[in-house]
Amino acid sequence: MKILQAGTKSLEPSSFNGQAKNFEWVIYTHGDHVLQTVSFCRTENLVYIQSVDKKDFGKTIDLSVGIAKKISEIGFPGFGRGVWIHDEICPLLFSCLNRTPIYQTSPEKLEGRQFLSLINNNEFEWIVYWYKEDYCHGGGQVVALRKKDSLIYADYNVLHRSCCGSISGLLLNSQGVTAQEFFKDKEGIFDVDVRPEIKDKVRELLK
Questions:
Q1: Confidence grade of residue 163 (pLDDT, cut at 50, 70, 90)
Q2: Burial of 114 (0-12, 13-18, 19+ CB in 10 A)
Q3: Burial level of 8, CB count in 10 A (0-12/13-18/19+)?
Q4: 59-89: b or e for each residue (b if 16 or more CB lie within 10 Å)?
Q5: Which of 35, 89, 93, 134 is the most exposed place for a label (fewest CB within 10 A)?
C-alpha cells in the first residue's frame, strides 16, 4: 500500500494496519487535534474517509473503519457537502483518482477537486474549461468528450461561489452533441456562444 503524507507532520508506516492489504493507497494529514485518512479500495472502487481525534489516536489506525463513499459522492469543505476532507489532502486525492486529462484555457485555474464528479469511472476522454473568478464569485464553461458515444457534453453556465465549497452538478443536465453540432454557429437568441479559447482547444484535441 502506498502511503502519502499531506502536511508537515509524519507518521510511521506501521501506524496504518487494519486490512491495509485491501487498499491501494492512503493519504493522511496529522494536525494538532485531528488525524484524517483518505484511502482507496480498488476492489470495491470506494474511498474510505476517517477522522480521528488526536486524543483517541493510539499506535495504529484501522483504515476499514472509515466512511465509504463513491468517488462522485465525496464532499469538500463548505456547508456540509458530504464528508469534510482537509484542504491539505484535496490536491493529492485528486491526483490519485484522476485518469482524465484536464485542459485549462483561461488565465485562472480551477482546483482539481472541482472535477471529481466528472472523473468517476473514467467516463470522459478529456475535459476542457475556461474560468474566471471575481472576488468570491466565479463563472465559466466546461466541455468534455465522453468515451462510450464520442459525443461532446458542455456546461456553458458554470457558476460558483468560492465560499460554498466545490462546484456540484457539472454536465449534469448536458446532452451530447456531435463535433459538427458543437462547432456550428449559434442561431437562436438564447443560444450561448462557446468561448473561442475552448473551441480552439477542442479543435486541436479532435485532430
A1: low
A2: buried
A3: exposed
A4: eebebeebeebebeebbbbeeebbbebbebb
A5: 134
The strand pairing partners of 61, in sequence order, are 16
Q: What is the pTM of this model?
A: 0.72
| Strand-by-strand arrangement of the 25-30 sheet | 2-5, 25-30, 34-41, 46-53, 67-69
72 three-class SS: helix
| Residue 140 phi, psi dihedral angles, 5° rounding | 175, -160
The larger pLDDT score, comparing residue 112 to residue 45, is at 45
What grid cell was written down for 175? 446532452
